[in-house]
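If your schedule permits, I should be very grateful for your opinion on a structural question. I have a record of one protein: its chain in single-letter code and its fold written as discrete structure tokens. Kindly check, if you would, that the fold set down in the tokens agrees with what the sequence suggests. I remain grateful for any guidance, and I place the record below:

***
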Amino acid sequence: MTTAELATALPEIVTEQVPGSKSKELLDRRDAAIPKALCGKTYPICIKQGSGAMFEDMDGNKFLDWVGGVGVLNIGYSHPEVIEAVKKQTEKYFHTIFNVYVHDGYVTLAERLNEIMPCKGDVKKTYFANSGAECDENAIKIAKAFTKRSGVICFTGAFHGRTNLTMALTAKKVYAVGMGPFPAGIFRAPYPYVYRAPKGYTEAEAIQYYIDELQRIFDEGAPASEIACMIVEPFQGEGGFIPAPIEWVKAVRKICDDNGILMIADEVQCGNCRTGKYYASIEITKDFSKNLVSILDKDIKKAKHKFNYSLMKELNDNKQMKDVWESPLTKPSEKKQGKHPTQKPIAILERIILASTDEGDLILDPFNGSGTTGIVANKLNRKYIGIEQEKEYLDLTIRRKEENDE
């Protein structure tokens, strides 16, 4: 299969189990040659080639890649423009060290990033690093050198890396077991997870609570005059995909400005267009009136959608179907292969799919459950991708499909 064919292919398992024999052989070699920390068992997959969002393993199984290099493959695999650029560059020179031999590519990219960097002031400069942890660590060094202070404030749910300093900043301590001692002068405040705010608080009260908890550090941890910087993810990734409320961000920015504290935005996960803007912080810097959640919104007026009015009318005794539908409960015959606590009736999924798709369309259900959406999609000649984390429900889906295929 060529990469062009792979880019438009659908996921497919051709081996009896995953991993197949070729992948299993490579995984065994990996276990013998590579440290255990890099030998995860969650995804027993060995990639052969990738294109777009699809990749093929060594045994010919095809997968839709939801990992994306842990969020960094913004343009997918094997983009032709990237391939061509890499080829051209390797024909000139492949590697040098910039602080010894200056090259145009480094300077040009820095200039372009400086133009859109959402930072205060007219003078902006860019430094390139190998990882997010290296960026965070250097940003904190710069903050300490500039302010002549040593304290750092970070937040619950944060992930900033796994170097010695960034392990101290990262909230999940499973990474840090046996790795201490860690740098002193690091203080942690609660991240504004409004959904998990103290019971009974309104959103406004919750945001004020998180602001007050942050300021408590100055009373109980270290005075503001000893804090060099606050490092914050505008949109947490590992912490649970949590956007910081804009009112809280405004308050943090003001606290920093009032006390001579530098504010570091860690956008390793939410930057580079992953929220719709090149940086999530662009919205913070440009317009405080917008909540960060708004940067995820699509332009609804331009969005394509379908509703098959004529067919719905035909199915409803030639009367236009209203927005309240009546449907029978899930039939016992639909539960013969097993039960799911929220299994939907086939009848209601048939109506939804007929109303909103055409034959040959691709339907994605990120919460596959018992597979009713897929069963109906298959019945109505639609393509289907389902995602489910519980193996027992994937097995139930397979049994139901096999039953319906008979």
